Structures are given as structure tokens and as C-alpha cells.
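Hi R.,

Here's the chain you asked about this morning:
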Amino acid sequence: MTASRRLRETLGVAIAILIGAARIRLAAAGFALAVAGSAVSAQEVAPHAIDIPPWFTETFLDFREDIRDAAADGRRLMVYFGQDGCPYCKALMVTNFSQRSIVEKTRRNFVAIALNLWGDRETKWLDGRTRSEKALARFLEVQFTPTLLFFDERGTVVARLNGYYPPHRFEAVLDYVSGKAERKETLAAYLARQAKDPASPRLADEPFFLPPPHDLRRAPGGKPLAVVFETIHCGPCDELHRDGFQRPGVRALFDRFDVVRFALGARTALTAPDGRATNAQEWATELGVAFAPTIVFFAPDGREVFRIDAYLRPFHVESSLDYVASGAYRDEPSFQRYIQGRADRLRASGTTVDLWK
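And here is the predicted structure, written out as C-alpha cells:
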């Protein structure tokens, strides 16, 4: 990372902190704006039009420097335009950037910068001219949000996404640009060959999911709680339902839990285990849930005791449920030691154990 990049990122963090403090003061003064969902007014002066992942980079928005610095790090520049109240921007952030493979691929291969379609921050485009964010959007004829621009090392836009791409197509675009495939074929031709089969556009239901209203407070001596967070267009979520949740051992263990499911980014009302009234989106943020699927386990006293937030095969899902339901977490803090011991006990009893099944 170059010295100029380190300086700009340090200043970016400081600016973000000052902006956050200013927002808190405005809220305390009673200047909150009522709008649909969780978005704020599109005309509010803000660094970003919608919450973005913390790994996006804050820079001075001189794109000539950003392209050079990205190239020096062996990466390429990705510029995102969004706006408040845009459901497709929210889908990009909540659905696409909740998938671990997409996040890892983006962070490894790109420097990601976010712009507000209606913002007033000063930018410097490749022609050297200074423009506000909104003026730059007009100059680039941004008509849809999200719009994403991907640059090569010379500053050429090698891919432009006008609108939302679901995860299977978005990840293919990341592969196309990071692999410099523009030197061999068009993006359309590449996607026709390489885009994976899409995941389901709907959340799958299970008979053990409790219906609303969702009061997650625990009664003394009651069951532990398992909270499933997932999104649409999520291949690992589909596999969890199709395979893991259908295993007899998994379903039997779920009988020992109260199980609820929330969609990441949804504003489904709930009462948290500590008794606070909140919604699924805010609670997931408080819990630090970043990937789908995630299962968070709470003891009968309302404490979080374990979570799954990575891709797990059914044996590991079943072992996670047993780890919490049996109370083994109280005596064995290492899940890896627990799961190895469980596998050894099953093998000793004559049961074939395949950790990948």
C-alpha cells in the first residue's frame, strides 16, 4: 500500500467519525427525517447514500490517484453509485455483500469506493476536472442505481453495471474483471458461459420456524434459541435448506430449540432476548451478522453462546446444534475439540462419520 493511500485512508476514517458525530448531534436536536425503510433523504449531505460495508475505502476521490494506487496493490478500482431509498442498492449491500465468497473476492481484487448519486463531495475525474458527486453522475450519464464502474490499470472502464446484478451474475463480473478477461471477450459473452446457476429468489420455509410475533425473551428453564439469518439469492442458504435441514439428526435436534428465521436487511419487528423492542435489520447489525446464512444460538438465560457464520456441511450443522442443546459449550469452550470428540464417539459406536457429509 502506498504512503498516499495510507494517508487518505487515515483521513477517511477521521472524516467518517466526524460525520457520524454530526449525525448524532442532529438526531439529538430533533432533525430526524421520516422516510421509507431505513434510508434517509436523498438530498441529505452524506458521504454515502446507503450503509456500505466497512471495507470500502475512503479516499480524496481523485480517481487518477485511486487507479494508480489500486494497481500498485495489484488490484483494480471499483466505483459504486447509489442513492437513498434505492431497494436495489440495499440488495447489493445486504444480499450480495453478505456472501463470503463475493466479499473475499472483492476485497482481494478491488479497491471499492462508494459515491452518492446526489452527493456534494468533490471528485476529480480522469480528465482532471473537479466535479461534485452528483455532477459526476450526470457527466457519466448514471441513470440507474446501483451503477458500478470497473477500471483497468490505465483508467479504462472495462465493465459497467447499470442496475442490480444478483449474486451469481455479480460474482461472474468480478471474475471477468479481476481475471482481465476483457482482453479476450466481451462481458456479455463471458456471462453467457460463466455465470453460475442462480440461487432462489425466495426464502425457503421450514416447519420448525416459529411464526410472528417474535418475542425472543427466554423463560427460566425453557428451550435455547436458534436464530437463522439469511437472504434471497443465496446459494449456501439454499443448500442449508436442501441438505442440512433435511437430515433426520438435524431435524431431531431442532426439536430441542425455539427456532426463528429473519431475512438480513428486513425490518421485521421483534423483541430481543434482553427485552428490547427492535427489528431484524437493527438487531443483526448489533450482533455483527455480516454473512448469510448465519445461525446465532442463545442459552435459556438469553446469552449468546455460539454461532455459525460460515459454510458448514450437515455433520457440522448437526454437531453445532448438539453442542448447544447438550450444554457442552459450558465445559468445552473449543468447538473443534468437541466436534472431534463427538466424531470419535460415533465411530467407536460403529457409525460411519464423514465430516464432509
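One quick note: The CA atoms of residues 168 and 196 lie 5 Å apart.

Cheers,
M.
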